[in-house]
Design goal:
It contains 22 helices and 23 strands. It has 669 residues and is of the alpha/beta class. It folds into three domains: 16-129, Serine Threonine Protein Phosphatase 5, Tetratricopeptide repeat; 161-308, C2 domain (Immunoglobulin-like), CATH 2.60.40; 332-668, Phosphatidylinositol (PI) phosphodiesterase (TIM Barrel, Alpha-Beta Barrel). Strand 14 (369-376) and strand 15 form a beta hairpin. The protein starts with 15 loop residues before the first helix and ends with a helix.
Length: 669
């Protein structure tokens, strides 16, 4: 068959399977060759695969093949096509964490202004009407919700038992470790169609009421991270994990199973080397597999463990908080770190982030809730602070290595009543004939300097903070005296007892993740996660006074423990939506975040707003899964993007510009 001379061709020149397979696999050479043929007949670019109803552009976008997508859109593939479930290429890219790819598609779609306006109007109508995207055809089946809330679990908890969650393989996507290595090679290099491998996992020292052993066949399901084995034990010091590796040969005579080897791990030994109430951020462990007879080492087995120690609230449990729900269906405005996070790039007057003054200001500007960050000091006091490194020290000093008194003294140096004088105060004291040691007749440091005259003491503090790693990487934040209205940081207890009860709380619990420690060159040892969660829960249960409170965290393990230990306050998982690689498969995309939240019975997700601005209908998708949907990020400070998300049904928007967003949404309402 010859190549047609025009677009009037009636038959495609190649099998659509070839095009779609190349788009799926990221085969750039094949795509280039096919696009040469397609240049004679543009309809070839938009051939729909009869199996899944998707174009090559949709397939490549789902898989995140950026260069393949570039080739397809340069050849004028149609970005507005959707599959039978109603998903476009751009929505798939945003959903699966390929944000740069979604941005590329958005730029390309906007070039055709007429078609772009049509598709945007369609999406806007769908979003406003509440019609969600249908579940995609080949998405995994719905994961069963964490079964820790059933009657069996409640009985086990009343016995003061710890829960042990075991996952085969590594939960760190940066790790190259495989589940099983035999003779120093991955198990699949020894596998053939006539063999299959099985790993039996059990626990000695466990309790009845939970499966004593679980069998897993290799290869493992991809969603193992959300399907851990669950064991109960009363004595963590004596509990032992046991593994058996089986190989089965299939022949004409039938199956011939045999045990290859065994491995064991003492739970208490996995924590050796850490100080009391401290633990390693590395949760992957590798143990030798010993031959069942000779006891010679024949390989290694890798697994991950999370332990949930029992928790009992110190005070009678309050009524369940509604979180971001139950507010007349309106998008809630949440003040980010109060009335906004500090940034040296901001030109307007700033109030110090995560301070009492900032929280009160947020409420007065129209926020119904304030979001703030909680960490523990070395002596286990929950304090309100965002960064793990305390820049005021002039070094890369972790907050968790300072006592509360040490931390308080450092933050006082930036407060309005500190001994640190700016240049205006120094001149005032000199003219008044007062001694700088005497009490000031009037405090003047609650405002920006009104002159450009040098301020040596403030400059010294700025120079000191500029030597820290965060400052060198991202620039000096604006939370220093002379740049913002600043007051000392406070404790969680003080916040709960002092702020008006009509201001809801979104408490974000900070716990360093492994990728953060690697990036910021931090120690791999930190406060033990159970201890962190228990201390914060104790404080909240003791001082909540009926306040509506929502917990959230970027750390999946913190979210799991919050959910395992209590049902009173909603728990939301925060995700960067795939904008940066985080090393945890649960945190790499909206798709992963929804799967994780549903698997563990969390109440919702908080996503970087880019994903919902690029694909507003994904808000409806999240809500159709029974989850609260909230967002954070720089785009939430722009009125048009806030409106886009609110129109799509967003439950809560976390913003630095409370006043602007409150006025904007009020006008629309």
């Amino acid at each position: 068959m010859g190549i047609p001379d025009s677009e009037e061709a009636t038959e495609p020149l190649f099998d659509s399977d070839t095009l779609h397979q190349a788009a799926t696999n990221g085969d750039e050479n094949t795509i280039r060759s096919l696009l040469l043929l397609a240049s004679k007949d543009k309809r070839m670019l938009n051939i729909v695969n009869p199996v899944d109803g998707r174009t090559a552009l949709i397939v490549a976008s789902r898989e995140g093949h950026l260069e393949i997508v570039r080739h397809l859109i340069d050849a004028r593939a149609d970005p507005h096509k959707h599959d039978p479930s109603g998903w476009t290429a751009q929505e798939y890219a945003a959903f699966r964490g390929h944000i740069k790819l979604a941005q590329l598609l958005a730029e390309y779609a906007s070039q055709d202004s007429q078609e772009s306006e049509r598709i945007m109007a369609t999406n806007e109508t769908a979003a406003k009407s509440g019609r969600p995207l249908e579940r995609a055809l080949d998405q995994r089946p719905q994961l069963p919700s964490y079964h820790g809330r059933d009657e069996q679990h409640r009985r086990m908890k009343t016995q003061g038992l710890s829960e042990v969650f075991v996952t085969l393989g590594s939960n760190n996507s940066r790790s190259s470790a495989t589940v099983l290595e035999l003779k120093g090679q991955p198990w699949d290099q020894f596998a053939d169609p006539m063999h299959y491998y099985k790993i039996l996992v059990g626990i000695a020292g466990g309790h009845t009421g939970a499966d004593s052993q679980v069998n897993y066949f290799l290869p493992l399901p991809k969603d193992m991270v959300n399907r851990p084995m669950q064991f109960f034990t009363k004595d963590l010091d004596q509990a032992t994990l046991m593994f058996e590796v089986h190989s089965t040969h299939i022949s004409r005579d039938g199956e011939k199973p045999k045990i290859l080897g065994r491995a064991t791990a003492l739970l208490s030994a996995l924590r050796h080397g850490s100080a009391p109430k401290r633990e390693s951020l590395v949760r992957d462990f590798t143990v030798p597999v010993l031959h069942f007879d000779s006891m010679n080492r024949i390989g290694t087995l890798t697994f991950s463990v999370l332990i949930a120690t029992p928790y009992e609230a110190l005070q009678p449990l309050p009524d369940n908080s509604s979180g971001f729900r139950g507010k007349d269906g309106l998008t809630q405005i949440v003040g980010h770190r109060g009335s906004g996070a500090n940034s040296a790039a901001r030109t307007n007057l700033q109030i110090g982030e995560n301070t009492m003054q900032s929280f009160i200001t947020a409420g007065s500007l129209g926020a119904s809730c304030v979001e703030f960050d909680v960490q523990l000091t070395k002596d286990h006091v929950p304090v309100i602070h965002h960064d793990p490194i305390i820049m005021q020290t002039g070094g890369d000093v972790l907050l968790s290595s300072l006592t509360y008194e040490q931390f308080k003294r450092l933050t006082i140096s930036q407060a309005s009543n500190a001994a640190l004088l700016n240049s205006a105060e120094a001149r005032y004291i000199a003219r008044s004939g007062l001694s700088a040691k005497n009490p000031r007749p009037r405090l003047r440091s609650n405002s920006l300097p009104t002159s450009n005259l040098p301020d040596p003491l403030s400059d010294n503090l700025t120079e000191l903070m500029s030597q820290t790693l965060p400052s060198r990487l991202f620039g000096l934040k604006g939370n220093i005296r002379g740049i913002s209205i600043q007051e000392p940081s406070c404790t969680l207890n003080h916040l709960l007892t002092s702020l008006p009860g009509n201001i809801d709380f979104n408490i974000e619990i900070k716990h360093t993740m492994l990728f953060e420690a690697e990036y910021f060159q931090l120690p791999f040892e930190t406060i033990e996660v159970n201890h962190l969660v228990d201390i914060i829960l104790d404080t909240v249960f003791r001082e909540h006074k009926g306040r509506n409170i929502t917990f959230s965290s970027f750390n999946p393990e913190v979210c799991i423990l919050l959910k395992v230990k209590q049902d009173t306050f909603p728990v939301l998982f925060i995700s960067k939506a795939g904008v940066i690689p985080v090393g945890d498969p649960r945190a790499g995309s909206l798709e992963a975040a929804v799967d994780f939240a549903k698997a563990w019975g969390l109440e919702g997700v908080v996503m970087l707003s880019d994903v919902f601005v690029l694909a507003p209908r994904l808000v409806g998708y999240v809500r159709s899964q029974g989850l609260v949907c909230a967002s954070y990020g720089a785009l939430n400070d722009q009125a048009e993007h806030a409106l886009t998300q609110a129109d799509a049904g967003l439950d809560a928007i976390i913003t630095n510009k409370v006043n602007l967003i409150a006025r904007t949404l009020k006008q629309e309402r």
